[in-house]
Amino acid sequence: xxxxxxxxxxxxxxxxxxxxxxxxxxxxxxxxxxxxxxxxxxxxxxxxxxxxxxxxxxxxxxxxxxxxxxxxxxxxxxxxxxxxxxxxxxxxxxxxxxxxxxxxxxxxxxxxxxxxxxxxxxxxxxxxxxxxxxxxxxxxxxxxxxxxxxxxxxxxxxxxxxxxxxxxxxxxxxxxxxxxxxxxxxxxxxxxxxxxxxxxxxxxxxxxxxxxxxxxxxxxxxxxxxxxxxxxxxxxxxxxxxxxxxxxxxxxxx
Amino acid sequence: xxxxxxxxxxxxxxxxxxxxxxxxxxxxxxxxxxxxxxxxxxxxxxxxxxxxxxxxxxxxxxxxxxxxxxxxxxxxxxxxxxxx
Amino acid sequence: xxxxxxxxxxxxxxxxxxxxxxxxxxxxxxxxxxxxxxxxxxxxxxxxxxxxxxxxxxxxxxxxxxxxxxxxxxxxxxxxxxxxxxxxxxxxxxxxxxxxxxxxxxxxxxxxxxxxxxxxxxxxxxxxxxxxxxxxxxxxxxxxxxxxxxxxxxxxxxxxxxxxxxxxxxxxxxxxxxxxxxxxxxxxxxxxxxxxxxxxxxxxxxxxxxxxxxxxxxxxxxxxxxxxxxxxxxxxxxxxxxxxxxxxxxxxxxxxxxxxxxxxxxxxxxxxxxxxxxxxxxxxxxxxxxxxxxxxxxxxxxxxxxxxxxxxxxxxxxxxxxxxxxxxxxxxxxxxxxxxxxxxxxxxxxxxxxxxxxxxxxxxxxxxxxxxxxxxxxxxxxxxxxxxxxxxxxxxxxxxxxxxxxxxxxxxxxxxxxxxxxxxxxxxxxxxxxxxxxxxxxxxxxxxxxxxxxxxxxxxxxxxxxxxxxxxxxxxxxxxxxxxxxxxxxxxxxxxxxxxxxxxxxxxxxxxxxxxxxxxxxxxxxxxxxxxxxxxxxxxxxxxxxxxxxxxxxxxxxxxxxxxxxxxxxxxxxxxxxxxxxxxxxxxxxxxxxxxxxxxxxxxxxxxxxxxxxxxxxxxxxxxxxxxxxxxxxxxxxxxxxxxxxxxxxxxxxxxxxxxxxxxxxxxxxxxxxxxxxxxxxxxxxxxxxxxxxxxxxxxxxxxxxxxxxxxxxxxxxxxxxxxxxxxxxxxxxxxxxxxxxxxxxxxxxxxxxxxxxxxxxxxxxxxxxxxxxxxxxxxxxxxxxxxxxxxxxxxxxxxxxx
Lengths: 254, 84, 803
Hints:
The complex is a heterotrimer. By secondary structure, chain B is of the alpha+beta class. Chain B has helices at about 20-25, 45-60; strands spanning about 5-10, 25-30, 35-45, 65-70. Chain B has a 4-stranded antiparallel β-sheet. Chain B is globular. Chain C has 26 helices and 34 strands. Chains in contact: A-B, A-C, B-C. At the A-C interface, loops of A face strand 1, strand 3, strand 4, helix 8 and helix 9 of C.
């Protein structure tokens, strides 16, 4: 169903406005607070053939398209700054990576464990998706996009790092000598310059963007975030993904 | 120089040992078994000293017990019994 | 090398050898496990999670003899790769620093280490001295072989029936509910119902925290765009309430009135499933002298008794509005909707637990919401193996394996045949159920306290029994009472025990468990237990053999063979000697013997080897002509249950009316024994939180879980708090007729109770909720009611807080 040409023009302008807004926001410093604004009134203007513009990869990531695209820019959208653009980020060091892996390990009992929530949460659930569904930057903090598909009951797996009760009477943390599996530093490459294989399971880590995208932590980010089809070049491990080969003689149907 | 083989039974299954054990030069520690059995070799100048060390270990916090597995005192002050 | 170096090296070798021997280290034998994977130096294998009755499968990663990681098992039908926060951290439960590693005997008030030989002898001698007074208190966290071995020791060996599990406190009312309706225990449906139901009803349970993976199985259908209506009915707002479409507040005990009121509405409107009822149901009520199976009554009589529960009366008793009851009746009156009811402790820990269980089954039967996928009254089990070990294995004072009963002459004969015992070895006198057992243990021997020894395994009655001040504490002042505890960490029970036996846990031993949907699951030992901790199963067999050596005649069967005689390649293996315990697979030997009991009540189990291959199988598992084993998802339904005769559509083949019909009961509403009054104006409810498993002995030692929820609290309604001048976080004093507890208040915290109601989670050993609770129990199941008693709240005088 094609929208009438007026609406298409409006759409074009809306997209242009939003795109411009995104670029403007990006050039602002991190410390500036974005105050909520009312979306600008849409005005008609002539376009070449009235068609939707083809967006670059960088804009694709951050733009909502379609007739209701402007809706997503509502209050939370204005509070939340746009995520960093998908440009080259190839200036990260090994030291950065080690630091990030250590930081991640603080919230995870072992590599693959669901991270603890480092901030207070409401006890009655939900609204986690407001920031973590797509990922968001608020002030100088980044709420990572969830690394797995959407599940309805977030607190089933993620508990807060700190005691949620109001009067936190002192209690001693128990001693536990468990040493969790360490996170891999990097994937292996067939030769220098080959795409590294994925050194971890993709179970619960199917959204590569969550850690490796432009909104990921410095040290883990991919140098080519413009490419969005990750598994085109980077292969997972069947064994790590619990898909071991079926061996005929075992008589094992599963 | 009596050389004794001991098994020190630890109270806790944590992986670090009670600190002063490692510092005692007379004790050489082996590999921890089942998270709380620690083989060790105790070298002292006299048997009495060895007995004191064991008593002291028993009294220490964090140690549940000490089993003396072997004692070699062929070098001790006790004179060898000469055959008639 | 000089002489000194040589002596040094020799001494170290000897010491290391001795330490290894003490550790009893054995190679884990699971190299044959077909689900084994080795990746990057980490060995992965399957196991059911150690925690709740959902029975998720995990993949356990081990390296250098230690657990290093956990993952959800992708191939498991129960959880399909997803876990909950406890499941993700279950590997850490093994590594708390104060694991019990030595047998300990109390001498002059202090627990001192002793040898296993001495410990086993002490236990055996207590049993020998007074077998009638020797009780075993077991657990729904026992593995199936452990429970089976304990049952055999007590019933075939000692010749008493004095064995009862902590499942008495958890599932007993569900069991009596099933028995009174279907004539046999366990749900007819399975988790597959959750995947297709249109309506999910929660009857007083909080699955978002207690069966999280099952709850999200339904929630995630909504995320994928399916239409499912979730209705929560409870005495307070919980995390589950927030995720449901409707949340109804009910009064304590109001569940009885809800079931009665909705059934009455269906009858008045004529919207119940008349065809189903006519073909497959019969009616029952308690007779003049109430018995579990009651008396047959006609449908008109049943309707007449039910008619008292008009919408108005049901609303008044239940706390729901007439509109809410009508909504439920509208749903149940529709044939096109698939309705699944879920319940757990709200309905089981109930002084009328048998009644409410029977009534909810009755509601589903009456309205025809039974038997087809998505239509199910599904009782959820709390513990990982209350089904597999207790209910199916018969580790109860009146039971035998396979659902047989000691009071039935034919059943005893069957058991004696399988166990090859001289006739008459099994006693027909029922033992003392849990509350009675502890009461007698806490009573002086010359005043009728005829239990003098309790051997506790895998449970923590010093924290989890109701009314601790009366049922547990007094026993410690009676010098002739002896408490033996097999556990993995110091607990509230080990602290007061006379003999403590360090035990192996979870993947430190082979095991099998059975979850809420009748799924029996198996795992292999993956790592060694610490110190001298040894399998509970070994402990039972060692005591049995010591009794044999001391001359107890019961430890041999009719042919003079040891009750736990185990062979490998035609030779006996001395499995009562720890170094030989893993020479062969004792689990397999015990399970394959236990299997023989499973067909009597159509709870058929497959051979052990089948469970090794599978992520569990739901019984009855029936062998097919081609040699494969087929599990049963929907019992009593012709479309899936192979035992249903052709053309029957539904056949309740254990029907108590012997006509293949299920029983729809009338039970009247009965008020709870203790209700709030002037002196004690608040309701007290107790329960759990997602972070902690039961008494917290495992989870409080997992830093991530402890950090998130380090201490218990009392949930207090906001208005009540304002009225009393209590601030959020303030420590208040709770008093019941039985005890006193001071703890901090939490307003609108995890849950929100209505005015006049309080809630305390019982995971905190330092804040014992059970000092306050009431031990009143259901007359048939003997299960106590932890959800309702009366307390008063006092503000504490201000005082400086200790830092």
